[in-house]
Design brief:
The chain has two domains: 172 residues; 176 residues, no CATH class. A twelve-stranded antiparallel β-sheet has the order 1-2-3-4-5-6-7-8-9-10-11-12, with no helix packed on it. Strands 22-21-18-17-23-24 form a six-stranded antiparallel β-sheet. It is mainly beta and 364 residues long. It is built from three helices and 26 strands.
């Protein structure tokens, strides 16, 4: 059991999941599924609220057999029984509207998510700061792996991944520019980038798709088979027109970026997600007419995304089809900056041997 100076008491199970919250005479209890997603919450003597999940989002809140609310998700939560959700650029819910567009609720927050002002009357809408599930009984935000307390700007329990030096820090103390929907500390930013019309044959160089990883961790990380220093970055893509190697190359992209518009999606990823990304890179060191650069980039991106957050490169993948699909996602960017890491960082792997080969950029 842990406590706070205001008299709050919190009880955790053997897996470090909060099972009881109490402040004075008010209390709530929580249960969890085997995958650590929350199964239910029961506030006081009221009937428990049961959560029904679809992938990593809550689709239904139930009270017994009665539906409290359904939740329709796209890139963000779109609508529920409480109304239609409106967001700011950070992804915070700033308003609820009815079917006619009339605003029924307004929300405002400080940078760490403390709600500023409360709506008159009972407000049962649970989705608020960062577009995540808010428990009114504790004023914590439920972020799947653990709970975040906006009042102190910290998580209430350790990072389950035990990543970094501070296991309670939220968004590396930069909540204005970062979000943390998983409750796990991020170690890098992953981007998928696509541009142009080519890339469907080994001779068609009018387009390209690739991934980029920027290290935001406190120490070096590994992307695929390549180590990336703190603050560093790497681009990874497949090529079928390099004489030395047809497959995965690192750091070529700064030399082959077309002047045509490129589009991208970016998300912060955890150490666990980075391991999945690296595994996909290592296991797909190849190039083919179908399994080309667009297929590769989508394969890596989709390995850590689900549902509507996945991208589609087309039945016959091309950068153009992938770029068009990226544009259908909320929050896509144009003209993302591509790091220039120097010719001597261009490399590929021949089996387990790292080969630095600046000739990989000769064709551009």
């Amino acid at each position: 059991m842990t406590g706070k100076t205001d008299g709050t008491a919190q009880t955790f199970d053997a897996l470090n999941r909060m099972t009881r919250y109490q402040n004075g005479s008010s209390y709530a209890t929580y249960t969890y599924y085997p995958d650590d997603m929350r199964k239910s919450k029961k506030v006081g003597v009221a009937t428990a609220t049961e959560h029904v999940w679809l992938n990593d989002e809550i689709a239904l809140d139930l009270s017994g057999t009665t539906i409290i609310s359904s939740y329709i998700h796209g890139n963000n939560l779109i609508t529920s029984s409480y109304g239609w959700y409106q967001y700011n650029a950070h992804g915070d819910v700033v308003a609820l509207t009815d079917g006619t567009g009339h605003i029924t609720r307004n929300y405002d927050y400080d940078p760490f998510g403390v709600q500023i002002g409360y709506n008159a009357g009972v407000d049962n809408n649970p989705y608020r700061y960062s577009g995540e599930y808010y428990d009114t009984e504790s004023r914590y935000t439920f972020l799947r792996a653990r709970y975040y307390d906006p009042a102190i700007g910290r998580f209430i329990s350790e990072d389950p991944a035990f990543d970094g030096n501070n296991w309670y820090i939220y968004c590396r103390n930069d909540p204005v520019n970062r979000i943390d929907p998983s409750g796990l500390a991020s170690v890098a930013n992953l981007s998928i980038v696509s541009y142009g019309s080519g890339g469907s044959t080994s001779l068609d160089t009018n387009g390209h798709a690739f991934i980029m990883v920027v290290n935001t961790h406190t120490k070096k990380i590994k992307v695929g088979r390549k180590s990336v220093k703190k603050g560093g970055s790497v681009t990874v893509g497949t090529f079928g027109n390099r004489s030395a190697h047809n497959g995965v190359w690192y750091n070529i992209e700064a030399y082959c970026i077309s002047s045509s518009s490129r589009v991208s999606l970016t998300k912060a990823i955890t150490s666990k997600q980075l391991k999945k990304v690296s595994k996909k890179i290592r296991n797909n060191d190849k190039w083919g007419l179908i399994k080309n650069c667009s297929w590769f980039a989508a394969k890596v991106w989709n390995s850590i995304n689900s549902g509507s957050n996945k991208v589609k490169p087309g039945v016959i993948p091309t950068p153009a089809k992938l770029a068009a699909n990226i544009k259908e996602h909320k929050g896509y960017q144009t003209e993302i900056a591509i790091p220039f890491n120097g010719l001597k960082t261009i490399c590929y792997y021949n089996g387990s041997k790292l080969v630095y080969d600046e000739r990989g950029a000769d064709q551009f």
